[in-house]
Amino acid sequence: MSTRDAITISSQNQLSQSPQELTPDTEKAASPSNIIPGSDIPDGGLRAWLCVIGAWSVMSATFGYSNSFGVFQSYYITKYPEVSASDISWVGSVLLFFQFNFGAFTGPLYDKGYFYYMMYSGTIF
Description:
The mean pLDDT is 76. The chain starts with a helix and ends with a helix. The protein is an all-alpha fold. It has a domain at 46-124. It has helices spanning 3-16, 45-67, 69-79, 85-101, 103-111, 115-124. The longest helix has 23 residues, at 45-67.
């Protein structure tokens, strides 16, 4: 008997066992009837909702300004007619470049636990 045949026979024996015959080592997960969806998710309460509101405020402010730059651009074109629209659009392009590309540096710092240092420096500057 080859190793392949032995594996096939072994796997067929395991498949033929009923759920009552499985040992706890074989079946480690709890049965689906005992688990209520979402019951293992902790409720953060007020602190969690304050975090959601804070994150929404930050995202609204940063992406709102970036996405509405076209309104500012039309204002700058009328205010400064001697400057071309292409030159004014560079301001918005550079803004978006810094907004997205600083994530490559700040993301790993945040993951390493330097959140407070970044928050202090962002607040001051």
